[in-house]
Design a protein that fits this description.
mainly alpha, elongated, single chain
């Protein structure tokens, strides 16, 4: 993608505003909007051209080896347009490695494929899955994870289960009070004999 003199001027002004924030004139804002629209249109046009070239490349690849010269020329053009080599491209170049141009393109495409693999691995190791992040956020999850890291390679000891407390004995119920059994003397008290008068009345003599 090439910029004209006017586009470079707008781009330089936009970079200056980004590095040193300050008031921007209405003309600067309008020029930046036009430049952004031009870049978007150029990117869309580049994507359309690349899709057309890739489809044409697939047709040439399907007709190999009779189309080797056209395939190699078109592959170079597609790579310049931003296309990343696919497994089918690598297989076709291996089949044509007797051709010096094919051998050179094979080395170039293998290096690009290795770069793509390293980039994918770096992205995969740099990001943590959402499911694991949720597990670590659960109560106890982060502590367990930290404990697992400290004791890595050693069997994890589980705390001994607590023994259940012995049941307390129920309070003894008070024994009912026992009343003494009455004796026969208490049930049937003895009656006292009637006391005779001390001075019995004198009987009057019959006259």
């Amino acid at each position: 993608m090439a910029f004209g003199a006017e586009e470079l001027r707008v781009l330089r002004r936009a970079l200056a505003l980004a590095l040193h924030p300050g008031p921007a004139s209405a003309q600067d804002v309008q020029d930046c909007h036009r430049l952004a629209e031009s870049l978007d249109e150029a990117m869309r046009e580049g994507a359309r051209l690349r899709a057309f070239l890739v489809a044409d490349l697939a047709r040439y690849r399907a007709a190999l080896p009779g189309t080797a010269a056209g395939y190699l020329t078109l592959l170079e053009e597609v790579l310049r347009a931003g296309h990343r080599p696919e497994p089918d491209d690598l297989a076709a170049l291996r089949a044509l490695r007797g051709n010096p141009v094919a051998a050179m393109l094979l080395e170039r495409c293998q290096a690009m494929a290795e770069q793509d693999v390293r980039a994918r691995l770096a992205r995969r190791t740099a990001t943590v899955p959402a499911s694991r992040a949720r597990l670590l956020a659960l109560p106890g999850g982060r502590c367990e994870a930290a404990g697992g890291e400290e004791s890595e390679g050693q069997p994890k000891q589980r705390p001994a289960p607590e023994k259940p407390a012995a049941p307390r004995p129920a309070p003894a119920s008070p024994e009912p009070s026992r009343r003494p059994i009455p004796t026969p003397g208490e049930v049937f008290p003895r009656r006292k004999p009637p006391q005779s008068p001390a001075n019995p009345p004198q009987q009057l003599a019959a006259g």
